[in-house]
Structures are given as C-alpha cells and as structure tokens.
Give the backbone structure.
Amino acid sequence: MFDVQKKSYEMIQFIREYYEKNNLKGAVIGISGGKDSAVVAGLFTKALGKENVIGIWMPCHSKEEDKKNALELANHFGFQLLEFNLTNLYDSYVKQIITLNHPDTEELKDSNINIKPRLRMATLYYYAAYLSKKNKGTYLVAGTSNKCEIYVGYFTKGGDNIADIQVLSDFTVDEVIKIGEAIGVPYEMVHKIPDDGLSGLSDEEKLGVKYSEIADVIENNGQNTSHEVRQRIKELHQKNAHKFHTPTFRKK
C-alpha cells in the first residue's frame, strides 16, 4: 500500500538533507502549469522555504491557461515566479532552418517540438548560474519527470531529462497525484489532463496508451492491461532505449 503521508515526508527530508549535506542554497524549477512541476515546486518550497525557490514560466506559443495555473501555483506556495518568454528565440531557430534547408512542415515537426524543452532547460541552467553567483550559494535545477514518462522515454534528450536533483522519477502518475493532494497542491492542477504544452495533444494522445496502463506494466507486468497495449508500451520502451544510455567506446 502506498503511504502517501510517509512518502511525502521522506521526499521533503531527502531534499532538505541533500541541501544541508552539500551546503546548497536554492532551487530553480521550470513551471509549466501541469501537475508534475506543481508537485515539485510544492515539495521544494516545504523543504527549503519559499524564499529559496524560484519558478520560471517559459512560454513559447503557450496557452494562457498554463500561465494562469503557473501564477496561481506561485501565489499558493509563495515562491517567486519569473517569466522568460522564449517565443522569439524559438521563431528564430525555425526561421534559420527554413532559410538553410527549405524543409516542409512535416519534416520540421519533431525538431520544432524538441527544441522547446532544450531552450527551456538552457534557460533554467542560465538562471541558476546567475543566482548562484548573485546570492553566493549554489542553486540546483530540479527535475520534474515521473516514472511513467521515463519508462517509455517520453522526454527530450538534452531537455526535460536534464536536472541536478530528481524527486518524482520513482513515482507513477497516480502516485504523483496523491502526493500533490497530500502536500496541498491546488486540486485543478493536480487533476489537470497532462500535456507537453508543445504539440497541442495530451500526453496520452501522443503516446497512444494511458499512464495507468504504463504503471500496470511497470508494477504488475501488465496483468490488468491488454496484450495489444502491453506491446505498445514495450515498443515505446525499446524504441527509446537510446535515451537512457550513451554508447561509449573504452580503450582496453
């Protein structure tokens, strides 16, 4: 049985003890308006204090609803939220590639989707380095990926898989929801339908499977999931295996 109160307490203690042990100061978190970043922001605020948590909302042709949720979250937990608009920078990338190679829309689709989280991660590290110098103490970039996303490789290499500290990567989406409820994340954010804020589709629409089915495969070998869905999840896991390991030649 998942003891959410116990796990939430342990997660907060994990953050606090790691920071104390390594003499760290604060955290920078990309706030998307979704449940994962909301839960991470809540945990870090409780562990480090609101004055040591900086959230950054990084719109890039983004929805106003996501901005509204990000502001509500910051007000709820009391941490500072900054806006770093990446729209013009993103548009510049697209303009350059069109000028160089004249690709059609379909050829650019994946490149356009994946450059956004890479720009966002570069922004988080840029600002964390600035704060570390300004406040004379190290700020870490906190990751927001959950176990289900990681298992099927639903992340961008060099983007949202990069972080200095992870707290949700061993928890399924259902468990993240329970943690969010336990630490007081606003209901509408905890239960918001997850999407990447990039493609216009929900996560489950993009993946072709439900997060509950991924969790069942991870935890129960897919006992409650159809053979067809199990195969789809297996294919996603294997197809994205290159995201987990970098092949490295070793001299003998």
User: Anything to note?
Assistant: The chain has one domain: 4-194. The CA atoms of residues 127 and 198 lie 22 Å apart. The longest strand covers residues 26-30.
